[in-house]
Amino acid sequence: MKIGKVFKYFRQTKHITLKEACQGIVSVPFLSRFENGLTDISFSHLLELLNRINVQLSEFEFLYQQKNTTNNDLLPAFQQAYQEGNAAQLKKYLSEWQKKQGKFANLQTIQLKMMLTTLGEGTVTEDELAILVSYFQKIDNWTFFELYLFGHAISFLELPIMLNLFKELQKKEIIYDDFRHDNFSILFYIYNNVILHLLANNCFDEAHTLVNHLENYFGNHDKDYYHQARLFNLKGLTLYLMDQKVLGLRLLKKANLITYLTNHKTDFLKNEKNYLTKYLSTEELSEVFNFSEVDYLK
Amino acid sequence: MKIGKVFKYFRQTKHITLKEACQGIVSVPFLSRFENGLTDISFSHLLELLNRINVQLSEFEFLYQQKNTTNNDLLPAFQQAYQEGNAAQLKKYLSEWQKKQGKFANLQTIQLKMMLTTLGEGTVTEDELAILVSYFQKIDNWTFFELYLFGHAISFLELPIMLNLFKELQKKEIIYDDFRHDNFSILFYIYNNVILHLLANNCFDEAHTLVNHLENYFGNHDKDYYHQARLFNLKGLTLYLMDQKVLGLRLLKKANLITYLTNHKTDFLKNEKNYLTKYLSTEELSEVFNFSEVDYLK
DNA sequence: ATAAAAAGTTGCATATAGGTTAAAAATAAT
DNA sequence: ATTATTTTTAACCTATATGCAACTTTTTAT
């Protein structure tokens, strides 16, 4: 219980006295006791105190989690290991979570197995997928946890089932409209995967609808260049496959051009190219990844 | 005190029973009373409960703030009014905060006056600026609150004083390295303004140092295209003014090209162009804002 | 429709969060 | 060094957070 200590750190580094910090909220002796870990505090009082010393709850939480070894939410940890392709670390997490019991521990376990499978080092059974599906069907509010879980499940689920779940998600998604950047990234990631999955299965119209739907987002977030570029990419491929080849290729090139100009890691463009090999002809491919006209800017 | 209600919403929409949610943390009856607003809860218990139902504190806070009319942190509200150029609304806030007393209310007041001044509808006295400076000098931990305050103060402060304060900030900034996107935006905004201010005062070397410092960030955040483009812009102008005109103009053009391709509001590029009029010749300007070579992609 | 089971609520007991006062210890100011 | 201010600690007290058992309501099963 070092919550108090974190508060003390903020207060002292801002040179605010106990008296200034607590006026009208709690008493001086109590605040002192709280800061020194001798007593707990109510949530609403903590909110008021943080407001008084001009610290956002997110800032407070950040430092608190950082100083706490018993990490409360393990999602970022999973994510990191997964993105690094660190299968060994994921297996560690897996054996930890397999010891625990309960519905949610089980879901975490399945999530880890899916991650490992994607990395080529694991398997997911039919039963486990059934558990996932029934969980998603039951839920009618998606938070970061479910978004993340679903994002990894997309390619494991049968297309019609996956699409149905996705429709459920869309109904709720409004909450995230002006939500934190972190959460929108996950949401976009899901859209991205669903659309690619649809295209791979020749469901062009559905994919197109989703692309159009995504476009609305950028009315309010015109500074989100990265996702804008990804959207050009998705739209480009979709139009290309819907026989609007010229327009499609232009969009694909635009996406690549932006990516190229912003110095995104070269691996990224290499992966993009790899993926498009499935769809584009050799000439088209080399045109879409030809940046000679702006090369002088590099 | 509708904290409990928000928790109840999350729990119920995820179809988790009281028993499942509280096992090993609090008792069923207590959780029920908390949810119905009959009692407060300790912060640590709330954290555990949120973790149990797989809701992030930030998600919880978001919904809580949204449903709470008595907004706890007014920074976003200020920001919105300021960005919209809504002077009337800012004046409203000002008269509200002038009624309150205390050091922080005073700081908020000054901040509002600076905003209004920037919009051409207010004045800030020397005394008020002195208060600001002494506040920043005393502080040795910068949170969102101070970042925001400083961001608006930059052009009001004497250059050497401002630079000293900025150096203090830089020492602390490490905390924000892998911090939330929101906070980094503010930090970048500050860097941006400081660099432009330096350039306007012919302090090229200092500006260049800051530009180099900013570049380090993008090693870990290569998906942040928007800020990457802004950095190209800053670096371009800096190099241009340091007599590396060719390289500088290339970077400026690169920044504009990215901005153009991502469909950022046309006002944005117009403002950029306006600003650069101070420095570039007419021919240079029209070249840097000439997008004919990629026009066919639009 | 009715019983059985589970989920949620209420009343009372108690542990603990938090206030008040005062005094000791530690910092800051002169 | 001496004063003044801030912080910590202590003792005692009150309000309230929380647990337990019994109760009511809702859901599920037959």
TrEMBL record, chains A, B:
It comes from the Bacteria. It holds the Pfam family Rgg_C. Residues 26-60 form the HTH cro/C1-type domain. One of its GO terms (molecular function) is DNA binding. Signal peptide: none annotated. PANTHER family: TRANSCRIPTIONAL REGULATOR, TRANSCRIPTIONAL REGULATOR-RELATED. This is Transcriptional regulator. It comes from Liquorilactobacillus mali.
